Amino acid sequence: MPTNEQVVDSPEGWVADHIRRYVATGGVEGHEWQPGVFTLLLTTRGRRSGKLRRTALIYGRDGADYLVVASQGGAPQHPSWYLNLLDDPEAEVQVGGETFAVRARTAEPAERATMWPAMTAIWPAYDEYQSRTDREIPVVVLHRR
Fold this sequence. Notes:
Layout: E1 7-9, H1 13-24, E2 32-34, E3 37-45, E4 52-58, E5 60-62, E6 65-69, H2 80-87, E7 90-95, E8 98-106, H3 109-122, H4 125-131, E9 139-144
Parallel strand pairs: 1-4
Antiparallel strand pairs: 2-3, 3-4, 3-7, 5-6, 6-9, 7-8, 8-9
């Protein structure tokens, strides 16, 4: 993913502020969002615009892989970043001060069965978000390339 292109940050006020602090401090501010809850910055390519889009997401780990949840607070539709990854699974991640390329994939049902409880242990509200929607909220595996 080219790093010389301008990146469009998430449009939501507090999320955009979080991203700006994260980037400006090399992850010193923002990596640990709340006590024991860590975030990464995910940059995807917009499936319609072609622009690079960055958002902050809570993450977990599965071995060397990073896990994120496409919850969008339990909205009926998938978040844009997830739809972007379905179109182009090559992305970039910043974890703290380190930035690297990843390839994304949706966890298979058997994997999700163990990954979902691991992610709800980090952020229990994911179970509430799942109860708000008929769609199965995906767990996304980000594999470092």
